Predict the structure.
Amino acid sequence: MTLCLGIGELMVELAPTQTPNLLQRGFAGDVFNSLYYARMMMPQDWRVALHTGLGTDQLSDDMIDFMANHHITCDNIPRIENRTVGLYMIQLHDGERRFSYWRNDSAARLMMRDPEQLADKLANARYIYLSGITLAILTPDDRAHLLSLIASAKNADKTVFFDSNIRPKLWDSMDEMREAITEAGRIVDVILPSLDDEKMAFGDNDDIDVATRYLALGAEAVIVKNGSAPTLFSTASGHQHYAPCPIDSMIDSTAAGDAFNGAIMARLAAGDSIDDAIKAAHKCAAIVITHIGALAPKHLFSNEFG
């Protein structure tokens, strides 16, 4: 059975509703969000799994049940006593969002407590997905251990997808962040950065600069997201831009990039051309931004994706 494995943090999401001052509880997190959308587009006989760290409390149990209900497994993970899950709240203004986070004591920060659990999963995975946020929440030693396991997986002919997902507030310093993102860039296959993040962190002038830098590190392909502007696909053979879908209105841009990444991963894994994969990813992201919160209901995708 083909296994797609994501590595990252799942959090409690508090999202606005139509009723003022009333928030809706859900579960989300950048890597999980991408798995959620990838699961919708992958063959049903494929297995999708998340490796993270959770507590031993009811909220952590609820998360496992939630994932199972969406056909994403989360077994053989560290369960940390006296820790629980992180939480974030979305605040919206004209479709753009601001986040408030409570995650410093998240059990996900200890997801590398038993690295053999992860090593076993990586050995059985065909496709692997992680992000810069995954790296940011780990200690330097755990981060180095994770990257070592990822490098071994790539050498064993696994395909590794990586979104740099740059969040400076999660890092002790910009230098530490740049060093970790760069190290990850050396050991993954497909990188899915966002232009604004990369310009801020690395001083790139444009999407070609971003792609050129990551290709020089050893990536096979770089797909640079740029909001409503064209997406850039780059390999050693050259660069090509793809215009996104026209959008009438945006309600909430939360997880648009995550949805794009999930669709790319699912379609490329299924053998689609890059043209078809990016077209599907743009459609997926366009649907997501019409919904409040990270995880849009699956019925919204039925017309486009069945």
